[in-house]
Amino acid sequence: MGFLDSLKKAASAFGIETPNIDELVDKAVDKARSTVSELGVDVDRISSIAEQTKKKAQEAAAGLGIIDEEINEINISVIQKALSKDKRLNVIPITDTAVGVTAAPSKECPAKCSIIIECSKDALVMHLGVSDFESARQLVQSGLNIDIAKEPAEVTRTVPFADIKTIKTLHKEVTGFIADIFSRLGANGVKDGIFDRRPFIPAVVRDLVRKMSGFVKIDDDGDAQFKFIQTRNFALQSYAWIYIKKEYITFDSYLTDFSFSGYLDAACKNAQKNFPDWTFKVYDGKIRIKRTINSTDFNAASAETDAIERLCEFMAELPAAWQAVMKELGEACTLSDVFDLGRLREALSKLPDYKLTDNDGDIKMIHPGATGFQIERFAWIFPKPTKVTIDACITDFKKHISSSTDIAKVIEAFNAKNTPYRAHDFKNSIRLKRVYELSSTKGADKTATILDDLKAGLDQAYKLLVDIARECGMKYDYYKPTISDIEKTLRALPDVKDVSKIDGGKGRKSQTVPINHHR
After folding, report:
1. Cα–Cα distance for residue pair 51/57, rounded to 1 Å
2. Residue 457 near residue 390 (C-beta atoms within 8 A)
3. How distant, in Å, are the alpha carbons of 129, 358, 410, 421, 423 from that of 417?
4. DSSP label at 70?
5. Which of 383, 390, 441, 379 is nearest to 420 (CA)?
């Protein structure tokens, strides 16, 4: 609250109308100007510090040899070119939409100051971090045309592209923004370190993250997902979410395709002894490995780029952290001790029966009906690092059997046989399941061996399903006409004039003779 506001509030408490206060203040200002004039001082030279520093910044720009070219389109390249003419400014490209600008100390700006200039859709946005929140509050109270963020403080100014017509105007807006900050802060502007820290600009961080190796997506909340390459020493598939906030960036990694078991809390505690900077946590029966970066760890000039470099260091160190956990759990994680799931899935996707791979990496196979067994059969393959499971069934199983079928009795009879498959009831249908353990797979290349085993296992499952169908009394061997059979039948009919293909050849359409043809 300024002096005038305080005066008005006090006057109001005594029943004095505010307009009277305004009138008194105006008269006092006029009297002061008259007195100064009588002393021989040029009244026109009295102006705010901010206006003086703006003018000096403008005059300095004019002497830098900056050509006052018109700007047809504002982009980062144009901004960098315009500001690089000023030797007092160090301009560093950050992303395709942002640059960092560091201003050396000068008479107008007596302390080193760094800002970020970002191109939004239709405006130029200048960000400056202020480590002292009280200084940021003082800036707002001084009437400066800026926005202020929550602590840690950040002040921004937005200038519409429509207001920037020339190179000199662009330069003036940037240097004027910096000069305004110092002029409003006065002596506080010279404090050591007042501009050394600032919050991250999330949009800039996200632009940099998109260019990193392993980037998958940024979700609706602005968080980034990463997928890491499996290596020979750590062949388990790991992912990470990177949560991007103004004050911090959190790196949160996790494993897929792996089922945790054992004393997870103890494993985390022991692994952390060798990785004290990491946080090992158990969530919903799974382990997460995390680290956090604070915006106050970095200088204002390069906070986002320095944070990205730190993230890259985390990613390089992550496999060793996961190896430490696996060692504590007694689990295999090197390529020689697990199945290469990427290679396995790629090979299975090339089989004739392949249908799809879902979001969990599970694979569905569909074996179409044919002469001898017209009903379709399917199988799900669930790949894991140390085991692969086949789970097969007859499509629409319940539609092909009588409601009086004793499914439990059929399952019991099947499991009494000597087969590698076990029958089980899944939603009142019979499914055949087989698990291939890593320890039971022979051969130097275990991934190649499991692929051969899976191909043979699928064929065996399809044959055993025929036995299940027979036990359930299904009618499975019936006449199923082909498209060619249908076409021949249609052409043989007396009232059919023509037969044509539809649906890419999958169907047939007949044109009949008009009824009056018989009259």
Report:
1. 10
2. yes
3. 74, 33, 11, 9, 11
4. B
5. 390
Report which DSSP code applies to 223.
Answer: -
pLDDT in tens, the chain (519 residues): 444 455 455 445 444 454 444 454 455 445 545 544 554 444 444 344 445 544 544 444 444 445 556 777 788 888 888 888 787 888 888 888 888 888 877 776 666 777 888 888 888 888 877 656 666 666 666 656 666 555 545 678 888 888 888 888 888 888 888 777 777 765 555 555 556 667 788 888 998 999 999 999 999 999 999 999 888 888 888 999 999 998 899 999 999 888 888 899 999 999 999 999 999 999 989 999 999 999 888 877 788 889 999 999 999 999 999 999 999 998 888 888 888 888 899 999 999 999 999 988 899 999 988 777 888 899 999 999 889 999 999 988 888 888 788 889 989 999 999 999 999 999 888 999 999 988 888 777 888 889 999 999 999 999 999 988 888 888 776 666 777 777 788 777 887 777 777 776 666 666 666 655 444
In sequence order, the β-bridge partners of residue 225 are 217, 241
DSSP state of 370: B
Structure tokens at 376: 């379709």
- CA 418 from chain centre, in angstroms, equals 50
Q: Mark residue 372 as left, alpha or beta (left: phi above 0; alpha: psi -120 to 50; beta: remaining).
A: left
